[in-house]
Amino acid sequence: MDRDLLRQCLTHHGESLFNTLQCEQTENPDFQAVASDLAKATYERRGAGEGCSLVEQFIARKADILFCPTWRTAVPREDELEDEEATEPYAIMPPAELFMEVPFEERRAMLYRDLERGDAVVGRINNIREYGFFLTLLCAAGGLRRDIEDLELSALCHIKEIPSTGSHDDPLSYYQIGDLIRGGVKDLDRYQEKITVSLLPASLCPRLAHIKLGVVAREELPKHYSRGLRVANDTRETYERILRGCHGYHNPSVVEYLLGRAGVSDDRPPSLMRGLQSKHFHEEDFATVIRKKQSASWALKCVRSGVDHFKHGRHVEAMNEYNKALEIDTNNVEALVARGALYANKGGMMKAISDFELGLETCPDHRNAKKYLCQTLVERGKQLQEQEKFVTAEGLYRRALSLDDSYPEAQAALRRITDTIQKSIRLREEATAKETEKAKSGKTSAQKLQRPSLSPTSTTSSRRRSKKRRRKRGGSERGSQRRRRRSSKRSEEEEEEEEEEYPAPPNTSASFLYRQGFLGSGAGRGEGASEDEGSEPRGGDGEGRRGRSFSSHALAEIDGGGRAAPGLSEVQLRQPGTAGPAPRGPAPAAPPLAAPRRTSLDGGRSQSRPGRGAELRGGEGPRAPPPSTSTSSSNGQGGVARPPQPAGGGAGKKGLPANLMDIFNKIAKFEKEKGAGPRK
Amino acid sequence: MEDPSSRTAHDGPPGQVARGGSKSGGPAAHGGPPGQAARGGSHSGGPAAHGGPPGQAARGGSDSETDVTREIKTHFRVCRFIMESGVKLGMRSVPVATACELYHRFFECVSLRVYEPYLVAMSCVYLAGKVEEQHLRTRDIINVSHRYFHNASAPLDCDREFWELRDSVVQCELLILRQLDFHVSFRHPHKYLLHYLMSVKALVNRHAWTRTPVAETAWALLRDCYHGVMCIHHAPQHIAIATLYLALNSYGVEMPVGEREWWQVLCEDVTKEDINAVISDLLQLYDMEAKCV
User: Fold this and answer.
1) Which of B28, B26, B22 is CA-nearest to residue B45?
2) Residue A96: which of B143, B203, B221 has the nearest Cβ?
3) pTM of the model
4) Hey, are the CB atoms on B217 and A50 less than 8 Å from each other?
5) CB contact under 8 A, B88 and A286
6) What is the pLDDT of residues A447-494, one digit of tens each?
């Protein structure tokens, strides 16, 4: 029990209250604890009053609530004084003292008791001295509403409390007798009854910091003062009449506003009835909580009937039921999952996925939602693959795996698609390489690095280089089973084309020798670009290649995936000078195969490659064309005029030289259309 | 429609009497002609559970005094139901006050025997929400009431019972409107009390004011007034003044004394007797709580 409050109360009411309290509150242990203290003091009744017995009875009965420390819940809000004068959200009344005609002395005493440092006051200058000016206080401006004008209180504003204007004039010269000044109370001596006022903003307390100090016009005087003047002049004005006449009184939300100002809560309203104390209210009895539960159960009924419809094949009715359930209870997990399943069944994959995702947001552990979502994602991924949207499909597979990392079908699909993406990237790179070659008129540094003997046709050599690169990329693949038919065909065709165009290697034996040397290095060289490929297949392939002739080697490359090829061409790149044309012979076969298997890290890989390779790849790097582009570019790259790729290349090959320019032009156009989209 | 003769006589608060006739008929009044909130619905789940045991204690002969007391107790309980529902529905103080006042005014000239008080209460809550611009959904009112009568039960399904309850509430609303001649907007003490509070606060030292929970106490007293008919028998200013007076006195707050008392100033026509009358009515309500609930 709040001892101080009790004491204050007892002081007011006297001994009889104490006795009554003792009667009523005998069972209350809190009271007994403080009773002993209070008993020691003697109380004379201060407040005279008839009918006090009623009040005393009331206090005595309700003392355990009234004086409970937790009873004081109000948190008054004091910070909106700025608006209040202007907008008047409630009726700002003149000080009640005015109506009560409180005597002079009492008002004066009250003011000195209640005025504090940091308050704002308004006064009229009555005297100007060389050290400052004196104000007769009219009223307080910061929320303290008192009738003080006739008290003739004088406050001093020292010259050093006046903000300097910057010029060297005497600041006091700006002020005249009779000016209305608003200032902050800098100091207050209650005993000697001296008030010091300042015009510096720092003198105001933080709550009132928005008030502007200095000269004010008559219109800017606080409302309670101007209304008070009206009352003083006209005795017929009663409190109620003024209240009714105030604009703020008729504000429809005045009750809420003032309640907020007072800090009393209307959500958990206070009550002195024992049964209405807040501890008796349970959260589950509140309307919002019941409504939620009810909506969920109504929605569940609809879902059940919808599932029943679904099982009997009545899909339309099932969908209606699900939609109804979701209207009743939005984001109901069961309804979302059921509707998603229905969508998935009917082929609306995207809608199904969005439903499942939404359901998982609400309830991340929903077993069915996860399961169905995985399945749907994989399905959709497959659909996208058909449409050659590999990147999106890959994303979907990854999402499916992130939900359920043991889902085998997703894993397999992810692997396949990663391969496909790499391949298509490689093909695309080939195309861009070809494009770059076509575009470049001058010598590239790669070309400069090239031996002069090797440049009968720069085109051929650069093509070979690009093919080497392709082979290199192809070699980075680990045994991926899924190979695009087109790519294989294309590589076959390219290989044949290679055969056709390739001039006799200057030094075949050397190339063989070199390849062996390469094998060691190639095997040892990790595949930086592709994430999940190691060097061993490459090494194995390289070894396998040793004994083969060029063409068979090339074929083997195609079959085996040309794994070693990238390594081969890498090494060649590393020693561009020495390698010369020799290894380039075998190399070109593999690149067509290798290109499509390029992964997104090609860009990064290119940085690791020195000289020529880096140069050319840099040109290809920024491009991230979709597989279709690579397909078409490899189309042209292969130099075969076959718009539908699986078409027989044999016939096309004969016409290659003639159609080559067309194809390359097509590529160029296509590339321009695609623009320089960033590669992955 | 309920057949009066079938009612058991005076074995509980009047509110329960007719209910005994039907199978613990709830607040649903769909059975009667439109506009008549007759009891005797075929629902279970009426307020029977609530009115029971305390009412039995007041069993007695058919003398009017006991009747009156019983009626007052019923009204008290129903108003308690309104106040509790108001809190659970998140209603502000003024709409709750309007609901209680509608209820009291309705039963001023109408007998408890004819109309089911809890249904009337639910409709008063609904109507008050509309009048005071804090619209409530019938679904929420029904949910809260249902749970009030059937503690910890599952919410109602969207079935016939629910729709019938809803129809009853809506029809009863029209009945109330007609009974009150469509005068449903009242002047409440709340606005006065808050302004008086601001004025009185200015007279007191700010620190003393923050120490003393006058605002909460006055507000609590005002809200509690609505359990009884005193809210319509006194002027709103008088009620406001009286609650503020009681709150200030409870904590022994010293007020400045001038030619006139602060309460004389805030409301010109209030006298000490008025204040005392209000306070004594209020205290009687607190006493009744001990007897009723």
Assistant:
1) B26
2) B203
3) 0.67
4) no
5) yes
6) 666 656 544 444 454 555 545 555 544 444 444 444 444 444 444 444
